[in-house]
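Continuing from the previous page of notes. For each protein in this section, the sequence appears first, followed by its structure tokens. Read the first protein now.
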Amino acid sequence: MQHEVPVSSKAATQKNFRSKCRKTWLYIKHHPTMYLMLLPGLFFLFIYKLLPLYGIQIAFRDYNIFLGDNPIDAIAKSDWIGLKYFQRLFSSSQFFKVLRNTLVISCLKIIFLFPLPIICAILLNEVHKKVYHRIVQTVIYIPYFFSWVLIYGVFYTIVSSYGVINTIITSLGFERINFLTDPGNFLGLIVFTEGWKETGYNTIIYLASITSIDTTLYDAAKVDGANKWKQIWHITLPGLLPTIVLMLILRIGNILNAGFEQILVFYNPAVYNTADIIDTYVYRIGLGQMDFSLSSAMSLFNSVVAFILIVGANTISKKLLHRSIW
């Protein structure tokens, strides 16, 4: 037997709803400039994030771009086939290979590169002479603005078979090292170049967090006899913990994003078995072989897994560390 909500309760709920709407409208009316500034961001969100969601259907259709007058019209005219491409994807040995490669490269980057900007930020914070501080910060930050194509050109002249490093090695009587074609050396090169490019940018994020730490805590620690290492361990690192947790959750959520642009410009057929990741596979299948449905199925799988990971990491962090994104 269903219990009906009393009329007076419904009226009260409607009254509260109208009151909240009125307050919201008055707030918008008194702050028009702020909401006007919000419009470009909402427009970007709608055009580049919400509108493309219509294309998710491609993963469930036998998509043929030539069926319609335009690619969007072709989606509606393509036959609905359900999970056929997901079954084909999960039964393919190629899929598990690129998934393994993606996880290996991402985990290597997290293990070796995630602590680097934290260490750099702490060390830079201890450089009290502004001139040296600015010089070092600028030097490590500049590579972030270089494109991966430019970085590949720089490192190719250094690590290629006849590059600077191999020229020095052969002059000393040793054999050349194949950095670009040997799978093991290639993974090391990928991790190193990622760290060289991105460490400076992430260092600034942690430096900004350090500046928000109350300086009186350091003064009190000095009075209590704490040396520099104890100050870092008991004040700086706990002060950085919210930022560290945030960055780690975001990194775990993007664990299936191993660096598409970087891998695309660096890798070659000799290292496909260890360097071909999900994004490059989608690129080669989707654009190279015009198999849009299969590549869309893999991209959708990537997005769903990323969503599950970021929610899971946030939940675990909330329960264990009592810190989270939301």
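Done with the first. The second protein uses the same format. Note its length before scrolling.
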Amino acid sequence: MDKIINIEKANYLSDYKIAFEFNDGIKKIIDFKNFIFSSVHPDIKKYQNQKLFQKFNLAYGEIEWNDYELAFPIYDLYAGKI
């Protein structure tokens, strides 16, 4: 039986890096900077503002910003890539 993976903890580190701890104990540090700065979409570009980027939430085992305006698949975060 496959276990459903969820994010248990997410801590802002610095710049655009967030440390994640998943419900199976795996820990990853993800740097979102390249994704955010290479996007041309205005809803993503606005997160170039670090203060706005730091205002994420954990909801239902997922990370999201501003009521899912920005979110990432857990599988990608678990794999350590976005």
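What the second structure shows: The radius of gyration is 12 Å. The helical segments are 33-38, 42-45, 50-53, 74-79. We return to this in next week's lecture.
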